[in-house]
Every structure is written in structure tokens, then in C-alpha cells.
Amino acid sequence: MAYSVLLVDDERFARTVYSDYLRAAGYEVELAEDAEAALALLRQRRFDVLLTDVILPGSSGLDLLSAAKQLDPNLEVTVITALDKVDPAVRAMKSGASDYLVKPVTPEQLQLALQRCLATRELLAENKVLRAHLTLFETGQRIAATLDRDKLVPMALASVATAARSPVAALMEKAADGSWVPSGAHGTDHAVATELLAACRAELDALGAEPTARGEHAPGELGPFGPRALLLPVTEEGALLGAVAVNAPGPLEPAGAEAVGYLCRNLGLALRNLGRLRQVEHLAYLDDLTHLYNTRYLDMALDREMQSGRPFSVLFMDLDHFKTVNDQHGHLSGSRLLVEVARVLRSCVRDEDVLVRYGGDEYVVLLVGIDSGGGLKVAERVRRAIEDHRFLSREGARVRVTASIGLASYPEHAQEKSEILDLADRAMYRGKRSSRNVVYMASKDLPPIPAGERP
């Protein structure tokens, strides 16, 4: 029996192309051009997957998602979004969408997204035998739907420990480079989880789709996980994302093994969704041109640093006579120069520092854990690097650009983030009004920038 898909898009061309893709892949497809028509079809019959654009006439794709989930909570939903419309995609993921696609969509991407949706659906169907254990089923659903890591890991570990009748549980996640990282513990502390990871590293590296027992060990080596630690794989779409370790003196009973497997699969689904959500949110905090962070991220980063209580410094930088570059070489070359400035800035700071395109030809650098003395050295390094670099060399222009930089530090110059930025901006403006190509330290004696006299 073919899976049924309801495709909703107000663009006729998109409906035609996507439906052709899906029918060629063996899916049964119904079409709707807006939310009203889609809801009418959803009331008439059940579908396996709802595939909808987030931007629809009259009622948005998010409204359709909410209404569709009320009609059929088991309906799998994938949303389609444009690259510059990531915020609705984030909200859709938080509202229950299984996946998102960024236009233009290829046949392979579309088929993979539907396979993911249907894999989730089959996961739920596979565990219908556990519906008699309503608490377990609901717990698994809560785990799968949780997109807050601070809540997800403790909840999942407590649930797996209960199902395995283990007093302790620990989660080890597999990083992108293949290494293992302890990321949570239940009934014990993080240090014990770290020791367990070191003792079981060989078994973790060899872990496959089935639980693995850690049998050979020295007395006390596994601590509260001894005498026999059981490693439960956490997988999603065939990929090993991590493992949950529990204390299992003997083999799990069939019902217990099925329960912990179900919970670990839902944990894998939640971890995958967290990763995809981070990817979407990351796009929302990037400047489209330079791929530096934008002011939304700067606001969050300043809050984070002020809450930590550590000193930090802010560099406010403006390119000197940038308008001349646009006038002489054109705006396209000007944009390329801004991207090249971003590369020069990256070469001047550490990975933990935050680079921001503030707007136009203005940049902000947040120097983490650096006071005004260290900040002044970095600012001068940046100023010299900009001055010595020859921009647009690939175009044969070899343009020389300089920058004026203002520096303000926390807590030396101010204790409020708005005041820190304002003082750094004033210091930069002082440089623009004097010699340019200079670094100035903040001072509360500097006058506000006159209205209409921004560089």
C-alpha cells in the first residue's frame, strides 16, 4: 500500500514539480493550494505525511500545522522554507514538525525527508505493543518532543534507569570526530560518568545496534555501575549518536529490554531534532553577507558574558572612507571587500571571541575574558592587519583600507551592555573625527555622537 502525502503550496509550479517527484517515487499525493483547502482534505481522510510551505495565503503554514495536529496527532509534518525565512522553520520544529526543507528542493532531499517522517511513524507503530504500558509510552513521547537539552538528558536517563531497574544511568555521546563525551548522569555524578567512559572506551568504540555488556573489569573499576555495566546504543536513522550505561547484574528481561530500547530510540530522535534545531537557529544568528554573527547574537553573547562575571572587552570598528570604495569600484566589489574584512578579522582573534557585522561597514568584536589592556593589544593588531592588507586583489584592484576602532571593557568602563556598546561607539567616533586609522579607549567624558553625524 502506497503512503499518502498531502502537499500544500500556493505556487502551482512547486505543486506540480513536487507531486511529480513523489508520484514517481511511489507515493499517493493529494494537492492543496492553501490552508483552508488542506484542512478540508484532512477532515475527509487520513494522510501519512503533510508537506507544507511555511508561507501560505490567508493562513500560514504554522497555523495549518497546529490545526492538522489537532485533527490527527499522529500526522507527520515536514515544512518547506526559503533560506531567508528560518524563524518560521524554528517555530515549526518547536510546534511538532518532524523536519524542514530549504528551497530549492531536489528529488533526493524530498524523498529523504519523507523517509525520515515515515521512519518516525514506523517507530511509533512498532511500539504499539507497549501501549498497555501507558506511562512508558507517554514518557517516550515526552522525550522525543523535548527540545531543551537541560530537561531532556535528566528525564531520559531517569526513565531508562527505571525501565532497566538500575539505580544509576549515564549518557555518553559520540562527537563528530568519533570521540566520546560524557553528557549526563542519573543517580551519580559527572565524575563517575567520566571514569566509566574511560573504563568502557573499547566497548563504546565497538558498540553496534545491540546492547553490550562490560564484563571484564578490575574490582571497583566501574563504581556504582559494577559488577556489570550494560551499554545501550542510542541511534537514529542508522547512526550511532551515543550510549546509555546502566547497572545490569544480569540480562534484561524481554519486556525490560524492549522498554529501554524504545526509550533509547526516542532519545536518539530527540538528540537528532536538537541537532537540526541548532542548525536552523544558527542560520538565524548569521549575517547573510559575511557569515559573521549578527546583532541578535551579539545581544545574547553580551548577556552571557555579563552573567558569567568575567571581564570582557568590546571593539567597535568602522572602515574609513568605505564610500569611496563603492564609488570607485562599485557596490558589488564593496560587498566583496566587506567579506574579505571578515576573513582578516577572523585571523586576528581566538575561536572563542565573537565577531559581529553590526551593519554597513561597521563590525563589533567581543573579546571574551580580556580586560582593557589585552583588548588594546588586540585592537591594534586588528588595525594593523586591516591597514597592511590589500583588498580585492583577485579583481586586480589591490585596494588599501583603514579602520577606526573604539574599545570599551567590562567592568572597567561600564556595567550595562548598552553602555559598553555606546562607549565603544563613541571612542570609535572620536577616531573618525580625528586622524582615522586609529584605536581609542573609551572614556565617559566623550560626548554623545551628534544626531545625523554617524560615520
TrEMBL record:
UniProt GO molecular function: diguanylate cyclase activity
Modified residues (4-aspartylphosphate): 53
GO cellular component, one term: plasma membrane
Matches recorded under SMART domains: GGDEF, REC
Any GO BP: cell adhesion involved in single-species biofilm formation
Keyword annotations of the record: Phosphoprotein
UniProt enzyme class: transferase
Residue ranges of every copy of the Response regulatory domain listed in the record: 4-118
Any single Pfam family the record assigns to this protein: GGDEF
UniProt cross-references to CDD domains, sorted A to Z: GGDEF (cd01949)
Gene3D superfamilies: 3.30.70.270, 3.40.50.2300
Listed SUPFAM superfamilies: CheY-like (SSF52172), Nucleotide cyclase (SSF55073)
Source taxon at top rank: Bacteria
Every GGDEF domain range: 310-444
Protein name, per record: diguanylate cyclase
